[in-house]
Write a structure and sequence with these properties.
Elements: H1 7-16, H2 20-37, H3 39-48, H4 51-54, H5 59-72, H6 92-108, H7 112-127, H8 135-155, H9 158-175, H10 178-195, H11 198-207, H12 218-235, H13 239-246, H14 251-254, H15 258-268, H16 272-287, H17 291-294, H18 297-313, H19 335-350, H20 354-361, H21 372-381, H22 388-400, H23 411-422, H24 427-437, H25 450-460, H26 465-472, H27 476-490, H28 495-503
Helix pairs in contact: 1-2, 1-3, 3-5, 5-6, 6-7, 6-8, 7-8, 8-9, 8-10, 9-10, 10-11, 10-12, 12-13, 12-15, 13-15, 15-18, 18-19, 19-20, 19-21, 20-21, 21-22, 23-24, 25-27, 25-28, 26-27
Amino acid sequence: MGEKPSTTRELAEASAAGNWDRVFALFDQSWNEFFHDHPVLLLEVLEQMPDEAIDREPKLRLAREYIGRNVHGDGYSTAYRNSVDLAGPLDAVNQLAMWTAQMAAAREVGRFSDATRLVNVARDFLGAQPIEADPMLSAALPEFHFQWGLTRELAGDFDDALTDYNDAYDWAVSTRHPMIESSAAAAAAFLHALHGRNVLARTWLARFPHVAGDEWWSTAAAVPAQLADVILHLDELDREGAARVLDLLTPVRAGERWAAYFLLRAVTETRMQRIRAVTSELDSHLETIPVPRRDGGATDEYRALTRLILDVALQRPATQETGFVDDRPTAKASLLRQYGALLRALRAHAAGKSKDARLLAAPLLTVSGARPRVLIGALLATSGEDGPQREEAIELAVTQSSFGLLAFSSPHRRERIAELLARRDAAAAAALLRTMAFAPAPDGASSLSPRELEVAERAAAGETAQSIATALHVSPNTVKTQLRSVYRKLGVTNRRELFEALHR
């Protein structure tokens, strides 16, 4: 007796002969094997299949695009931009596949309202189906839920996206679908980290399987896990660790999360030279993206927040082009808009402009506890020198190991915060915060006494001589004398030059 031919050889032979009935039978028998272990062969077969054959199973169009983009890259084809629209009646799997393909097409051209409408239609339809009685539907649900979650995430609906990622992960585990298990766990970790829910982010990262690097889908699946890891490093005040992880990514590799990648690059870089490089890289990358895909959904807000951070770092004056320049978000606003307000509030607070800080941050004090990073920032920006709000912010930061926003405090406040952290068994964070507070003085400031350096930092941040005197319990004349000494030692004549001398 001859050896039984392998399923892969049978598939290749049936496709070459145009025997599509046999191809469909092999798909029913061994789809998971082809999808996970032989994606190149599967893609070749799907590309050879004529329209009249593939129309029998429209879900295969979505599979063809998904595999093609992971194997060959984002520019694989334009099929996502051509909605799949077949005459009914269709079975449940193919009906959901058609809607999912249509939402992918809408997502690609920035029509996020249409895409999320289709997600809602698909979920309502799914709720009326007897899933347990349809094995094909159960097998398809991991990918459907993941695509729905990705659509919602990119549209800026992070909460509902997590619902779909959770469902995708659960179905992937039950149907043994390692690609979606990895992708959904990583995506959930990223969204939890973005909100400051670092305990949950680490839980989901622990569920991210250690997949072989040569899996055809492993690169794309790992991207959100790496972005989550960057955020966790930043929250541990470890910018070097964050930068090392980001060095593993590029805007192209980040795929549809390119805007989140640039936001984290802007947050991580500290050297002026590198900050300018990020600005140039962002501008250059935007030129490679079709205009409809640059705007809409969360992309607009990621870009606005990134521009705000870069403009602040480059000491550019605020204009109408500055991200979120006049925004006053409430507790119901989107997460990224709230972060824009907090950045501005914390800078005002560090500069002694308490009233401005409170105007921006006070509306965010009632935000849901599901956004701990927002609460930490709002409590810090509305706190006094001491008091319950700062205590609450530190307690929340310790609970979530989310210390990143504490570094936005002025140097003298960071020292007090470090003392409070040390009392709460957060000695490592306290030590890092002290390092930031008492870092070696810039070259031009090495001749200043500790008190002169504190006066200089406050003045460079915009505080008046009177407010500095009140904070340091000295007279305004004493502050002015110390400032004259600072100006002489640094060779500067005004506060702008002072800022540059201290932060060049």
